[in-house]
Amino acid sequence: MDQRLEALGEFGLIGLIRERIRQRSPGMRLGIGDDAAILESRSGCDLLVTTDMLLEDVHFKRTWGCFHELGRKTLAVNLSDIAAMGGHPHHAFLGLGLPVRGISLAEVEAFVAGLEEEADAAGVTLAGGDTCASQSGLVLCVTLLGSVPAGQAICRSGAKPGNGVWVTGGLGGSAAGLLALERGLRPRSPWPDATPRPSWLKSTEEAVIQSAIGAHLTPIPRLAAGQALRGYATAMIDLSDGLASDAGHLCTESGVGVCIQVGRVPLHPGTRVAARWTGRDELDLALRGGEDYELLFTTAGDPRPVLHAALPGVAVTRIGEVLDGPPVPTLEGVDGRREVLAGGFDHLRPAT
Known about the structure:
Layout: H1 5-20, E1 28-30, E2 38-39, E3 45-55, H2 67-84, E4 88-99, H3 105-122, E5 125-134, E6 139-149, E7 164-168, H4 173-182, H5 203-217, H6 223-228, E8 233-238, H7 243-254, E9 257-261, H8 269-278, H9 282-288, E10 295-299, H10 304-307, E11 316-323, E12 329-332, E13 338-340
Parallel strand pairs: 4-5, 9-12
Antiparallel strand pairs: 1-2, 3-6, 4-6, 7-10, 7-11, 8-10, 9-11, 12-13
């Protein structure tokens, strides 16, 4: 078989993807192959719809060669949005803009395999989409449908003064992993000869750097946790742009303030190692690095008993409190002084 993508062509590629997709979501009457998919409506449920794009040289580098991981992440970032609403994902639609040169059929197949692996883990079926040639880089866009029992979606707008502010997992790992990738490290590969290695960085530190690379390339959407928090969390958002930015979104939508305590912010193990290695501030990576895809949420009580089965072995940390005041997040230092918590990723603003 000719392994060149151009030999396969657009419709051959669609056929190849169709052959590799397994139906695992109930309610799909017709999937890939027609002008539109046909899905059964779900009585007693609200429909959730989300979409996310990943762009070459903005979200990833094709030169990293991590196409399987990229397939997983392309779906995972959408799954995280459904998790943040407390929902169940069902059907995905993939928009695929392929560069006119420089990408192979094997790389596209690795991408599709990774996407299918993530879909299988979440019980999602790829039901359709579109392919086209890109005159610049690789463009990936997924629209994901899900559902939640009617009236039970967890929005960003329900936080109340006196609620605790909680977060799952550790923060800064994705930013740490990105730093490592930019310096030449690759997943499951030995330390590259061309990258200077600090004398203090031993095998233990290298292992947590590899863990951070995994956090960046293949984030874990907290679907079970989001579903467990229905009826318990008062507001929730997933951490895609960084704690500083996403806490601000929650404040704006809820019309409340949030105070986050520096000493309580949980760090991914790789955050400290990467910060020491690169000279970056570890707290800045955790607050503003982005793409951790953990859940930030507010509750009236302690959510840990509720989340015990949904997050085995994953920390759930109270990092602050919801305040009655201006709808902005603040950061409280160890000395008790507070300052406005600003920053985070914004696609349309230059980095500062």
